[in-house]
Amino acid sequence: MRDTSQQMxxxxxxxxxxxxxxxxEFMEKSSLYGVWYWDLSQKDQMWFSLGFLHMLGYRQxxxxxxxxxxxELLLEEDYQEAIxxxxxxxxxxxxxxxxxxxxxxxxxxxxxxxxxxxxxxNQGNKPLRIIAFHNDVTPALVSESIQVYKDEIAALRxxxxxxxxHDAITQLYNRQGLEESYKYLIETAKRNxxxxxxxxVYLENCVQVERxxxxxxxxxxxxxxxxxxxxxxxxxxxxxxxxxxxxxxxMPNTNKKxxxxxxxxxxxxxxxxxxxKIDYLSVSCGVATLSLNVSDNTQKIYDTLNLFxxxxxxxxxxxxxxxxxxxxxxxxxxxPFKQASxxxxxxxxxxxxx
Length: 354
Hints:
The chain is α+β, with helices and mostly antiparallel strands and 354 residues long. The chain is built from 12 helices and 10 strands.
C-alpha cells in the first residue's frame, strides 16, 4: 500500500533509506506489520505506516504524524508501561522491548497489538530514532480469553455450589449467590468490552395460588418455573431466585434481541403449558442491556442494571402484566406483546453473541 500523499514525511523517507523500499512495502501489503518511527531529536514527530493505521481503522489522512496522537490511540495505562519499557531499552540496549499493547480502534473497540521496538543509534551510540513493528494479536487473545472465560465460569459455578448459595426450593442461586456471580460477570464483560444483558422474571398471581392450593403447591410452581428457565437459557447464563416471585437471568455476551427472545420463550411456554396445571399463571419480564468497558465502575453497573430491569418490570405490571419489556423501549411501550413477537421472528441462537 503506497502513501497517497504528494510529499513523503521525512521520517518515512529516512526509513526507506534504512530498509529497502520494496521489502518495506511488501511487509505492509502482507498485513503482517504496522510500523511507527519516532524521531528522538524532535520528540513530537512520529511517522505511522499505512499498515499500522489500517489496524486501527484509520486512513492516513485521518491521523497526524505526531507522538501525541500515538498516546491518544493507546490505553493510558498501556502507554505508561510502553514508555517505561522504552526507557529501559534506551538505557540498556540488551533489554527487550516487546509487549502487547491495547489500542483504541476507530469503531470504539479495543485492539491488541504486539509491539517490538528497537532503538537506532549513531556511531557515538547516541539514540536517534525508535522503530516499532506491530502485529495484530487480537484474534488469538480473544480465543484465549473465551477459553479462560469458560474456565472461569466453570470454576465460579463450582465455587458457588460448594458454598451452597442456592435457593432451597428451586436449587437456583439465591440472592447472595446471584450477587457474587452478577459482579463477577460484569467484571468479565468489562475486560472483554462485551455486551451484558439482565432480565428480571416476575411470576404473577402467586398469592392467588397460595390461597387456593396452599404453600406446597406454590413451591411446585416455583420448581417448574426454574426448570423452564434452565431449558430456555444457555449453559453460560446464570439463573437465580431474587425474591419470592422474582427470578433473575444473567446473560453474558447477549444483545438486546437475544435477551428479549429468551424472555419471550419463557412467557410463551407458560401460555401453552401452564405451570402445575394452573392456567392463570403468567410471567412478565423487565430486560436491560449495557455495553461494558474496562473503565466502567462495577458497582455502578450493577446498580444501574438492577434499576433498569426494575423500572421495565414496573411498566409491564402497570400495563396489565404477561409482557416482556426492554428498558430501551419504555418510551415506545404501546403494544409490547406484538412488538416483541415481531422482533424475534426467525431468531436463532447465533444472534445472542456480539
